[in-house]
């Protein structure tokens, strides 16, 4: 291996247990691989002709990994020309949202449709919007507001007219979806689930297609700015193929992408011929759904919601929902897994409720046994796991099932989960990462963009301190060490994406993907980690990423073949 670059830092956190700290890393930039890791003097003596890049006080870590995301949808949903109105990106109350509605309406040229994403009825304490409510803010232009759950869209009268619905009445309800209707059959400005959401939002979404790749590039930039170098598309559909290939072909593309094909797609079991190296883009697995979202009351849980104004305003059924909230019964799961297991793809199940996890584990165990995979390196996954328990994590570990958890559920909703949405004995233990790590299973963290901003360092801080965004502590018994928190976004995440031979640690033979931190996270107060430690840049294959160059490269691409992408991507949005 021809070493031509030595990167020196104040400290290198390698995440390699055989060599946990170093001060320099040698790279062969022609291959993008790490050649050696050790002391600066040793590496310089061994490779005297190599260029030295001294990062000074910077601390180097492996490139961070978000193992469950939706980059294309996230960009199209939140970046300009769309408007992101989630509570945690600057709109904490419904008054803030409506003030922004007024501002956007005043500043947008007449007749131009507008799209918003991220209304959260629980956190915003917002009503379920109707066309008459939205007409107060947008009397003349078509507008859609997509719920943060991804299960509902709200729209105004101008949008109903734009859709051309005769007498203002929606068409017949699609299978598995429905339109909101007044008593006289006219639209009330609501549509539920993907099939109806797509139709109701179609005209406005089409208007956003001036350069569909540009907002996706902005989301890539946001992820890279937060230290992420590898991630996934966890609701991949074949209509996204051209977009992801185009992004991977940009010379300064900052992310490696692993695709998880939605099981509801007819070609989900088919391999994909991808015209770029699989180190940049590959099909890794198949995505399935067990239950729904805790924020709309559709999780398969053994316990009820509490009866109060918060749950009433959000129209949450108190339950418990139990098996009735499952998307499939056990026989259907067995049939699906029986069909998909022989493909060799990794399975990944969305699951939040404890009843749901029991059923998924039963189905997994049956399929693994039937197909001779018990005890093999299958790496099947379960995603989110908000309400799941210690004994379930231990069972997952025995089956070789990986756990990908959602700290954002705790960070942003934790204060409501504990004592408002659920009894404290349940809500305080939401995202029981301490029990998950103790189980011995492979545990990772993700942000599920665009459900939450992609900030791994905030996940570290929250899971080490068990502090929510407000600073309150819940379930302190579930706190973990910083080392485990870092594993969840490095070595463990690489393992779950099937990229552990490529990335996840700074180890000879792996790709030279790095994250630059301003300060050693082990030397600061973990309660102030995100204030005291900043991401200063990322590297891919031994090259420091130029995000401005990347944006320019995407802007120069021909957008014409991606004009249908905004509508297609929103068709697959589901909150996790």
Task: Give an overview of the whole structure.
There is one protein chain. The protein is α/β, with parallel strands linked by helices. It is 32% helix and 20% strand. It is built from 22 helices and 22 strands.
Q: Total number of β-strand segments?
A: 22
Q: What portion of residues belong to β-strands?
A: 15-25%
Please give the alpha-carbon distance between the first and last residues: 43 Å
Note the main sheet. 8 strands, mixed
Shape: globular
* Category by helix and strand content: alpha/beta
Percentage of residues in helical conformation? 25-40%
SSE topology sketch:
Layout: E1 5-13, E2 21-28, E3 33-38, H1 40-46, E4 51-54, E5 59-62, E6 64-66, H2 71-78, E7 83-84, H3 94-107, E8 114-119, H4 121-124, H5 131-135, E9 143-147, E10 152-155, H6 157-163, E11 178-181, E12 187-192, H7 194-207, H8 213-225, E13 228-236, H9 241-249, E14 256-262, E15 281-289, H10 309-313, H11 330-340, E16 346-351, H12 354-370, E17 381-384, H13 390-399, E18 402-405, H14 407-417, H15 424-427, H16 433-438, E19 443-445, H17 456-465, H18 482-488, H19 491-496, E20 514-517, H20 529-532, E21 535-540, E22 543-544, H21 547-555, H22 565-570
Parallel strand pairs: 1-4, 1-5, 6-13, 7-8, 8-9, 13-14, 14-15, 15-16, 16-17, 17-18, 18-19
Antiparallel strand pairs: 1-2, 2-3, 5-20, 9-10, 10-12, 11-12, 20-21, 21-22
Helix pairs in contact: 2-8, 6-7, 8-21, 11-12, 12-13
């Amino acid at each position: 291996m021809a070493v031509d670059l030595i990167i020196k830092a104040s400290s290198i956190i390698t995440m390699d247990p055989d060599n946990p700290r170093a001060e320099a890393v040698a790279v062969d930039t022609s291959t993008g691989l790490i050649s050696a890791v050790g002391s600066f003097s040793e590496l310089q003596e061994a490779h005297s002709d190599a260029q030295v890049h001294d990062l000074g006080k910077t601390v180097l870590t492996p490139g961070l990994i978000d193992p469950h995301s939706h980059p294309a949808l996230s960009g199209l949903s939140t970046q300009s020309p769309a408007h992101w109105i989630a509570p945690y990106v600057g709109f904490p109350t419904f008054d803030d949202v409506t003030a922004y509605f007024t501002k956007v309406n005043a500043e947008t040229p007449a007749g131009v449709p507008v799209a918003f994403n991220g209304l959260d009825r629980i956190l915003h304490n917002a009503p379920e919007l109707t066309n008459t409510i939205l007409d107060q803010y947008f009397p003349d232009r078509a507008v859609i507001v997509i719920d943060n759950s991804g299960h509902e869209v709200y729209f105004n009268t101008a949008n109903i007219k734009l859709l051309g619905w005769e007498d203002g009445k929606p068409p017949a309800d699609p299978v598995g979806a429905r339109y909101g209707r007044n008593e006289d059959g006219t639209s009330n400005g609501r549509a539920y689930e993907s099939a109806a959401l797509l139709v109701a939002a179609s005209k406005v979404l089409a208007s956003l297609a001036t350069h569909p790749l540009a907002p996706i590039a902005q989301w890539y930039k946001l992820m890279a700015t937060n230290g992420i170098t590898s991630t996934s598309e966890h609701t991949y559909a074949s209509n996204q193929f051209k977009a992801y290939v185009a992004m991977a072909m940009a010379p300064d593309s900052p992310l490696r992408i692993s695709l998880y094909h939605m099981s509801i797609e007819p070609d989900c079991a088919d391999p994909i011929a991808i015209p770029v190296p699989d180190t940049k883009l590959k099909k890794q697995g198949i995505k399935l759904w067990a239950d729904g979202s805790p924020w709309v009351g559709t999780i398969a849980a053994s316990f009820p919601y509490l009866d109060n104004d918060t749950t009433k305003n959000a129209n949450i059924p108190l339950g418990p929902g139990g098996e009735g909230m499952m998307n499939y019964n056990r026989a259907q799961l067995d049939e699906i897994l029986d069909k998909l297991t022989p493909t060799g793809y990794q399975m990944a199940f969305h699951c939040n409720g404890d009843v749901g996890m029991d059923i998924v584990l039963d189905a997994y165990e049956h399929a693994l046994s039937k197909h001779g995979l018990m005890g093999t390196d299958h790496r099947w996954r379960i995603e989110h796991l908000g309400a799941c328990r210690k004994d379930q994590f231990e069972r997952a570990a025995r089956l070789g099932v990986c756990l990908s958890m959602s700290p954002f559920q705790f960070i942003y909703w934790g204060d409501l989960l504990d004592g408002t949405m659920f009894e404290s004995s349940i809500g305080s233990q939401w995202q029981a990462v301490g029990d998950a790590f103790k189980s011995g299973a492979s545990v990772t963290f993700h942000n599920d963009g665009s459900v939450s901003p992609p900030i791994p360092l905030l996940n570290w801080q929250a899971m080490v301190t068990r502090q929510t965004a407000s600073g309150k502590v819940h379930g302190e018994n579930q706190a973990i060490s910083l080392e485990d928190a870092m594993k969840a976004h490095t070595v463990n995440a690489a393992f779950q994406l099937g990229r552990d031979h490529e990335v996840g640690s700074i180890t000879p033979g792996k790709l030279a993907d790095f994250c630059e931190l301003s300060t050693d996270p082990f030397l600061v107060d973990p309660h102030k980690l995100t204030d005291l430690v900043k991401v200063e840049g990322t590297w891919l294959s031994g090259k420091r990423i130029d995000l401005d160059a990347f944006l320019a490269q995407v802007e120069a691409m021909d957008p014409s073949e991606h004009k249908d992408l905004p509508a297609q991507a929103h068709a697959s949005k589901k909150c996790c």
